[in-house]
Amino acid sequence: MEYEHTPVLLRESVEGLALGGGGICADGTLGGGGHAARICEIIGEAGTLLGIDRDTEAIAAAAERLKGFSCRKLFVNRSFEDITRILRENDIAGLDGALLDLGVSSKQLDDAARGFSYMQDGPLDMRMDAGADTPTAEEIVNGYAEAELCRVIRDFGEERWAKRIAQFVVRERARERISSTGRLVRIIKNAIPASARKDGPHPAKRTFQAIRIEANDELGALERGLDKLIDALNSGGRLAVITFHSLEDRIVKEVFRRREDPCECPKDIPVCVCGKTPDAKRVNRKPILPSEGEKTENPRARSAKLRILEKL
Fold first, then answer.
1. Percent of the chain's residues with pLDDT above 90
2. Which is the CATH superfamily of the domain at 10-107+218-311?
3. How many Cα atoms occupy the beta-carbon half-sphere of 268 within 13 Å?
């Protein structure tokens, strides 16, 4: 299957980085290379693109897509949370810009063999790096205790029927191991009352999101990686982050707020005594949202939010 990807908030995110010719920019979630292609156009022959992704298929597709650009291109099959070590290994002192697009690509969603899709039957995998020695969705669904499974679905999927879904999963896996996305979807549908399935998104959407986040430690990587990316920025460098659900956006918003206002003193103290000073500022106070036109052309952009931070 060809690795197709429609970059979300392309103009807003890349323009928000305020890059110039010769800049060094990291795309921490390279995907199909949509955002990276525009970055390469801007930084030109003297610039460097550092493309990072956990998915080897994404890196291969992006490398092919970016062949025609003259900038220096470095591709790394790791998580963006390893940015400190990646820069050291490539003799890069600092970044002029960094971009994270936290959405799952169309290729990953549409390829039944990857196990992300609740619309097609396939093996329960959901790992961003299919070769990684990390738990698969199948191992989570069949191995987690009922209470832990409920926590994952409730906290990461914000699913109101989490307890009932966990109960149904545990009951069904006792009869036979759950190894396909199709069977898991049927179990979820049976767990959610028919009246609650009439409106809203696909009944399995939130549970699949939750299991995918758990399988890839997505929120943990985001929490750990954001500060490292900010630390890696040169003075005046910017970090642009595109989120797709409230859990991600909450983390980004809190990290950006803390870097802009790190003071830990009680608010009733007139003078700061903790000594912590800001090292960054938010470029946009409110998130930048896709236009109505983009949401119509690309429905997966509907929940996207862009936040940008500049290093002082």
1. 78
2. Vaccinia Virus protein VP39 (3.40.50.150)
3. 0
